[in-house]
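Exam prep: given the inputs below (a chain plus NAP), describe the expected output before reading on.
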Amino acid sequence: MMELLLETKLTKWLGVFMLFKLCLAIFPTIIRKIYFLLITAHRVDIRNFGEWAVVTGCTDGLGKAFANELAKRGLNIILISRNEEKLKNTADKIEEEHRVKTLCIQADFKKRDCYSNIKKELIGRDIGILVNNVGMARTTPGEYSTVDEDFIWNEIDVNCGTTCIMTRILLPLMIPKRKGIIVNISSISAEMGSPSMGIYGPSKCFINMFSSCLRKEVECYNVKVKCMTPGFIKTNMSKLSHSFFEKFPILAKIIFPDAKSYVKSAIESFYEDDLMATGYWGHTLMGLLFIWMPLKLRMHTTYLFVKILNYYSTKQKLQ
Ligand SMILES: NC(=O)c1ccc[n+]([C@@H]2O[C@H](COP(=O)([O-])OP(=O)(O)OC[C@H]3O[C@@H](n4cnc5c(N)ncnc54)[C@H](OP(=O)(O)O)[C@@H]3O)[C@@H](O)[C@H]2O)c1
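Solution:
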């Protein structure tokens, strides 16, 4: 009886402690947001960075949404992806809807020789924004010992290599103008890990550290670096989670936005000074709930969650 009482009290205090930690963590974020909305937001125009924006991996999901949202705000868009037909369709739609110019560059980022052509096309343009968006991940969980070796190399090239080389190509165009922004799309997996999903989480850890180092180096040239660390977003890449979130629609409303809603919110954080941003309020909340956990506990949680996602996904496939 005494034990049960103790347990209940302990649980209550643990709850109070977590709530306290959450409030402490949320408070500075709220203050920064209010400051941004009142002081900064109305003074910024995204076209101040330059005439053109480059988006990698832009024919689906987040990339497509970024291209559309930036075009909506008046920027000309350079679209880089691997499927020519999808590229053309995306470009035609953007030109028709937003009356801006587009340039399509076909490239498969798994191939390291794709960059010389990209470089040729970009040189001489007034490029203000680079969105290093392209990424790939396993579609189903599995043990690392069974992952195809080529898949591992491809994931390193696409998730890490592309960001490094595209940044290397664009920086010499931004530095002399003393303006520009490099936006690297990372993931909450950099903190939460990705056990049973191969090197996805580790590749995003690389992006976080790369962004931190780069920012230090280029801040003196007035070139900004932003590292976005979103949680779940409804795209092809997150197919494994779709059936789970269909079962829990209220949770989905908070932490599973579609690409368009995510990007609309994420772009606002481009102007904020912080290097890291989830880009979406539900993902910030999600991060704050888990980030206090020791790494080992975070890995257990993610491992278990991936198993749950896989259970719902397999169940739906069998129906
Ligand atoms: N969705 C999420 O829940 C989520 C969460 C956190 C972070 N992220 C990150 O957000 C970024 C975008 O993810 P997403 O969910 O929008 O992915 P997605 O829906 O799978 O779209 C990926 C895009 O990249 C292109 N692409 C893929 N491989 C390519 C290659 N080798 N060469 C050139 N283009 C290639 C695809 O074009 P094709 O038509 O040619 O395939 C497609 O346009 C990624 O960096 C991802 O890690 C996503």
